[in-house]
Amino acid sequence: MSQLSVQHLLGIKYITKKDIELIFSQADQFKEVINRPIKKVPSLRDITIANIFFENSTRTRLSFELAEKRLSADVVNFSASSSSVSKGETLIDTVNNILAMKVDIVVMRHPKPGAPLFLSKHVNAQIVNAGDGAHEHPTQGLLDAFSIREKLGDLKGVKVAIVGDILHSRVAISNIYCLQKMGAEVMVCGPTTLIPKYISALNVKVEHDMKKALQWCDVANMLRIQLERQDIQYFPSLREYVMMYGLNKQILDSLKKEIIIMHPGPINRGVEITSDVADSKHSVILQQVENGVAIRMAVLYLLAS
Ligand code: CP
To answer: Among 35, 182, 196, 228, which residue's CB has the most CB atoms within a 10 Å radius?
Structure first.
C-alpha cells in the first residue's frame, strides 16, 4: 500500500502532490462508505485518537470525531476551556498526560501558529493540525480542493479566487498551497490592508476589485472577516466592507457565467455572502462539509498505516 511522505499532517506546505493525490483517492473510497446504510469500517479499530481543541470549532471538531468513529477508532475529546490548562499546565505536560493514557494520534487546534509543529518535536504521537492560528488548516485546504475536483473533474488549470480576510486566514494559506500543488491558478482578493505583505512570495495573483476577481475565476472561496484575530481596525466600517467585498445575488447574476461558490464556514450571512448566494445552486458549502469527513478519514487512515 502507498504511504504518505510525512508522519504528521502539520500543513499542506510540507506534503507533496503525490500525498494529496493519495489522500484524494482514499477519500473517494471513504465517501462511498459514508453514503452506505452502514457507514462504519474497522480500519482503525486498535487506534486511539485524542481531539484537543484550544480554540472554538464546530465543523472541524465534529468532522474529525465522526471520521474517527466511522473508522472504528477509540476517541477522546479535550477542550481547553474545561481542562486544567486554566490552572497553568503547559501544552507539553497536557499532551504527555493524555498520551500516558496510550493515545496514538493527536488532532490539535490551537490559536498559536506553529503549536502542532512544536508538539510534534516534543511528544511521542502523530500530530494532525486542525488549525493553528493564521498559519495553516490543512484538512480544510484538502477538503476544499477535493470539492472543486469533485465538481469540475480536475484541478489543473482551474481558476480559484479567494476573497476576504486573507491576512488572518489559515484557510487561505492551506488552499493556496494545495491548489497550486495540484495545478490550479489562485487569485486573492480583498482590501489592501487584509492582503499579507508576503503574498508576492506565494506566486498568486492579487486583485482588489471583487467583480474583476469574480469575472476571472471558475470558483470563488468567500472568507469571513476574522474579527477575533484583528487587534486594529483594517477597514473604515463593516458597511463599507460589505459594499466592496460582500457577494450578493445581483453581483453573481451580473457575471454572465456560472461560478462555484465556496465558504469554509462559519458564515457571517449578510457580510461576506448573502443568504440567497450561500443557499443557491451555485453554492457547494454543504458538500464541502460532507467531503470534510471523507478527507479526514483518509488522512487519519493513511497516517495510521
Ligand atoms: N471551517 C472551520 O474550520 O470551521 P470551524 O471553526 O467551525 O471548525
So the answer is: 182
